[in-house]
Design goal:
Elements: E1 2-3, E2 8-9, E3 17-18, E4 21-23, E5 29-31, E6 37-38, E7 44-45, H1 52-64, H2 66-72, H3 77-92, H4 97-106, H5 110-114, H6 123-135, H7 137-152, E8 158-167, E9 179-180, E10 191-200, E11 205-212, H8 221-225, E12 235-238, H9 245-253, E13 257-260, E14 275-278, E15 285-291, E16 298-304, H10 305-332, H11 342-355, H12 357-360, E17 363-369, E18 376-383, E19 396-398
Parallel strand pairs: 8-12, 12-13
Antiparallel strand pairs: 1-2, 1-7, 3-6, 4-5, 8-10, 9-10, 10-11, 14-15, 15-16, 16-19, 17-18
Helix pairs in contact: 1-3, 3-4, 3-6, 10-11
């Protein structure tokens, strides 16, 4: 609602407009005999609300039949309103229940669209409705995926599976699945939980599960895929962390096909036998198909120009650092106060190789002792890249 000293309108405008109405009371407006220009300085916003994302979200809710499903699960109308408030807020302004409660009461126009007064809804209802939604998680996931299949008509031919985690700032003492581990943000000082998510080839979620924070990626696949009802021959796509030998064997026994990033460290690629699958200057991708007679698998050795640039830059940076540190040790042999004893020099070089292990494996370092003392005579090094590694095949990976 826009209110002015001389005119009012229920339409919102971002520039001065001529409104041919005048309000003499709260509910009575009549046409003006003259037009008045209303500028932004002469207007006052009364309870401004946003409805853009909310309108789109409610349309999706309607298409998916979510309200009907919630009623079928025994949700009351206030509970459905609270559930929709939580869901739409996650789409429009993801935050905690406390922040969501404030957003529903002071920012969003969702209440006007659903004819529900969120100003009267207690905060506790949002917490309780989250628990109730979680209780019916499996039924809701099955319903939503079935509706999505009916709407878009896609088949169950590809399934993607991956894990991520999130950490708690507090102790999370009441959460039995909160465990210490390494989060995606490299936090090892906070308890974690792990989220496993199964998606189809179109990117629609099929199933989710919460695991303990320290769970091994490879130990979750069978439990997640069991009961999905995917047809024989469906393809499962995973990253290298989940593609253990045991998981691959289980997929084969269940009749699934799979596509994974190989854990093989041996790299090979013959550009003359490869096929170009992406022909963009500077972003070319080539693929070489090899049939492994021992495993019966098809191996795709891929070369990406973008990946080559990235890996080459990383190699050059660490090689330069490794050589700089070697040079410092070598220069110290001729300076007062620096390490010169042969055994101590070997220790320093050993620690250096451990620190820069990726670069050090491609170097031959020779430390020559002084035959007349316990000191070091010289340090020499030469770069000798190992064959079939990232150093000789940058930008190559195997699927």
């Amino acid at each position: 609602l826009i209110r002015s000293n001389v005119a009012c309108s229920t339409a919102t405008t971002s520039s001065p407009a001529k409104i041919p109405w005048s309000c003499t009371s709260k509910n009575t407006c009549h046409a003006l005999s003259e037009y008045y220009s209303i500028g932004p300085d002469g207007m006052e916003l009364i309870r401004p609300r946003r409805v853009g994302i909310e309108h789109l979200a409610l349309h999706a809710v309607s298409q998916l039949g979510l309200e009907r499903k919630l009623k079928g699960l025994g949700f009351t109308q206030p509970q459905i309103a609270a559930a929709l408030g939580n869901i739409v807020a996650r789409m429009a302004s993801p935050a905690s229940e406390l922040a969501t409660h404030h957003w529903l009461q002071h920012t969003s126009g969702l209440g006007e669209l659903t004819d529900y007064h969120y100003e009267d809804m207690p905060l506790e209802r949002l917490y309780r409705i989250s628990d109730r939604l979680w209780k019916h998680k499996d039924a809701l996931e099955e319903h939503l995926y079935r509706q999505e299949r009916n709407l878009f008509g896609f088949g169950e031919t590809i399934t993607l599976y991956d894990l991520t985690n999130t950490f708690f700032e507090g102790t999370a003492a009441a959460n039995p699945k909160a465990r210490f581990g390494c989060s995606k943000e490299k936090r090892t000082d906070c308890p974690l939980v792990t989220l496993g998510l199964v998606l189809d080839g179109s990117g629609f979620p099929r199933k989710s599960e919460i695991f303990a924070g320290n769970v091994s990626e490879g130990d979750t696949l069978e439990g997640m895929l069991t009961g999905l009802g995917a047809t024989q021959g469906s393809m499962i796509i995973m990253d290298a962390g989940i593609a253990s030998d045991a998981n691959i064997q289980w997929l084969s026994e269940q009749g699934y096909r799979y596509l994974v990033v190989s854990r093989k460290r041996n790299r090979e690629f013959d550009a003359d036998k490869a096929t170009t699958v992406k022909q963009i200057p500077g972003q070319q991708v080539k693929v070489q198909r090899i049939h492994n007679s021992e495993t019966g698998e098809v191996e795709l050795y891929c070369h990406s120009q973008m990946r080559e640039k990235k890996e080459q830059a990383i190699q050059d940076r660490f090689s330069s650092r490794f050589e700089d540190e070697l040079q410092k040790i070598a220069d110290g042999l001729h300076k007062k106060g620096y390490t010169k004893r042969y055994d101590k020099v070997l220790e320093r070089i050993g620690r250096l190789k451990q620190k820069y292990s990726r670069a050090a494996q491609h170097y031959r370092v020779t430390v020559t002792p002084d035959p007349k003392s316990e000191l070091t005579k010289s340090i020499q090094w030469k770069r000798q890249p190992k064959q079939n590694t990232q150093a000789t095949h940058p930008g190559v990976y195997c699927l």
